[in-house]
Design brief:
The chain has two domains: 203 residues, 2-enoyl-CoA Hydratase, Chain A, domain 1, CATH 3.90.226; 62 residues, Lyase 2-enoyl-coa Hydratase, Chain  A, domain 2 (Orthogonal Bundle). Helices cover 39% and strands 15% of the residues. Strands 1-2-3-5-7-10 form a six-stranded mixed sheet, with helices on both faces.
Length: 288
């Protein structure tokens, strides 16, 4: 796919996806959705990519949904619906992206280089880390536009910052500072605007240093999914099965041998071949 609303660049095993509509403050479009989904799937299948960094071109990260769509519903809901809504025809584009990030086989870091409002901030919630520019303006502004939070943010946001903070931000719809977001746990850290991307790269290199890509892919899924079990025995079931698979059939075979031999391990398992899209102990709805 040829991209027009994003940039796709791989260097030193880091994929940088840049939202690339700087003249519109990188406002979200359905075309951007399609390109982001394609880029994430490419990353899943490319074993030369270890970590994904998402940032914005220009002075903003993403100003929210593009409101100047030439025709039709601005959210793409162009098929008239009856009393029974057809979810296949009215998919929230931000939610489609969030679900794709949730299923990512690579860690994802948001390098929020400026304002992030509406879908511009909700799209980052399923990412594993968020590094924001000092002084950046953030807003879950949906209540002030007469709509509801989207991009699965009602699932992700309370898990990140707690229900009370999520409630205040979402119900008020007010803009707040990156500094408040840091204080309440939304961001990992802040950096000067011109250093945000390098801070994300530093973290990406840390994640990849001496680690197994298979371990990163599986541990990421375990941390996102296992806390939703209603009993720790279910997590024990997942832990046990994946511990066997990784230690007997994948990178764990050399990981411990290398430790005993006081050398660097040689990790050879390929994420694209060894990590399935879905495990039977993490059932997912039919709709993805």
């Amino acid at each position: 796919m040829a991209y027009q609303d994003i940039l796709f660049d791989v260097s030193d095993r880091i994929l940088t996806i840049t939202l690339n509509r700087p003249d519109r403050l990188n406002a979200w479009t359905l075309q951007m959705r399609t390109e982001m989904l394609d880029a994430l799937e490419r990353a899943n299948q490319d074993d030369d990519i270890g970590v994904i960094v998402v940032t914005g071109a220009g002075r903003a990260f993403c100003a929210g949904m593009e409101l100047e769509r030439p025709e039709g519903n601005i959210f793409g809901y162009d098929t008239p619906q009856g009393d029974e809504l057809n979810i296949d025809e009215i998919r929230d584009s931000g939610g489609e992206l969030s679900l794709a990030i949730y299923r990512s086989k690579k860690p994802v870091i948001a390098a929020i280089n400026g304002a992030a409002v509406g879908v511009g901030i909700t799209m980052t919630l399923p990412m594993d880390f968020r590094i924001a520019a000092e002084g950046a303006k953030i807003g879950f502004v949906f209540s002030q536009r007469g709509i509801v939070p989207e991009a699965c943010s009602s699932w992700f946001l309370p898990r990140l910052v707690g229900m009370q903070n999520a409630m205040e931000w979402v119900l008020s719809g007010e803009i707040f500072s990156a500094e408040e977001g840091l204080q309440k746990g939304l961001f990992r850290n802040l950096a000067p605007r011109d250093e945000v991307l390098e801070a994300a790269y530093t973290l990406a290199r840390k994640l990849m240093h001496k680690t197994s890509p298979i371990s990163l892919a599986l541990a990421r899924q375990m941390l996102w999914r296992n806390p939703n079990f209603d009993h720790p025995m279910h997590a024990h079931n997942v832990d046990s099965r994946l511990m066997y698979i990784t230690s007997e059939r994948q990178d764990g075979r050399d990981g411990f041998k290398a430790f005993l031999e006081k050398r660097d391990p040689v990790f050879t398992a390929r994420v694209s071949e060894s990590v399935p899209d879905q495990f039977d102990f993490w059932p997912e709805p039919t709709l993805k």
